[in-house]
Amino acid sequence: MNDETGKAPLSAESLPRIALTMGDPAGIGPELILKAFLDEEALGRCAPVVVGEIAVFRRYAEMLGIGMEFIRVESAREARSAAGRMPVIEPEGSGAGDCLSIGRIGREHGAAAHRAIVEASRLAMRGDVDGIVTAPIHKESLRQAGVMFPGHTELLGHLAQSRQTAMLLAGGGLRVALATIHTALRDVPAKITQGRLLPLFELTAEFMRRFGLENPRVGVAALNPHGGEGGLFGQEERTEIRPAIEKACAQGLSISGPFPGDTIFHSMLEGQFDVVVAMYHDQGLAPLKTLDFFGGVNVTMGLPYIRTSPDHGTAFDKAGKGEADPGSFLAALRLAAQLIA
User: Fold this and answer.
1) How far apart are CA 259 and CA 225, in angstroms?
2) pLDDT per residue as tens digits for the range 130-160
3) Which class in CATH covers the domain with range 1-163+303-341?
4) E strand intervals along 5-157
5) Please, what CATH class does the domain formed by 173-291 belong to?
6) C or N terminus of the chain, fewer CB within 10 Å?
7) Quick count: other Cβ atoms within 10 Å of Cβ 328?
8) pLDDT tens for residues 264-311?
């Protein structure tokens, strides 16, 4: 019997191996992972191994009344996960459990999150796991720990020495690639250039093959209101975005635009596009989170392996209270397994 992706179910031995990073130990990441290991349906799609600290997970399990057996393993290949049984790889230098302050920013929290990401990247780069699902991190805690990367996308790209990475969001019937990510709005126009856009168009079209789309229809959002209104509200559409689209078309990509940002997402929901390229973070994330706040998934394009994550943050206000909704994390786990398979 096939699943909803149209593929036959895999045997236990051939399930994709996926590393789940702990995220910021002071946030909701540990709770999300604990709840994932109670979900038999999600566990039936992959063979997960957690990268983090057992002391942290044990503390959350005790606080939340979650029965869980923790098994320390040295490699993903020896991990045998099941509902209520969590295999964990502990990075060198672990110790966040000794100074954990739930719901608070902290240098040790950022360092622990960073150690888990680095170890998971190492596992993926040497082929021990087929992909990574990352729990949320807190950028200020990372910065206090001396980690200057603004987010997972940039850090994982650096660790993998990728030529180019980009963020793709999926949820609510939308797929949205971002031309800029963690960039102040006033700095966005300077980064909207033909030299940046054309490689992004190529990467996005190529990555859509993971979704079974051999000739994806790519729609490109404008930067300025009304698509710039012929230059009245900005020149980027005329000088950068449209020329980049024309070059992509000349290469054979099925791409069109730029279309006003206030209509293009409706057009995708109507079936005109398979993916939209948005010019800045909130232009792309606002419609997607409005449509699917608890089910959106973040995907990193351009890595040599699959990486997904829930499309939300650490939610310090909910940490340790048992209130974290695992919907987006489970969606990220399912999508990672689908894209790998």
Assistant:
1) 10
2) 999 999 999 999 999 999 998 899 999 999 9
3) alpha beta
4) 17-21, 47-51, 69-72, 85-89, 131-134
5) alpha beta
6) N
7) 24
8) 999 999 999 999 999 999 999 999 999 998 889 999 999 999 999 998
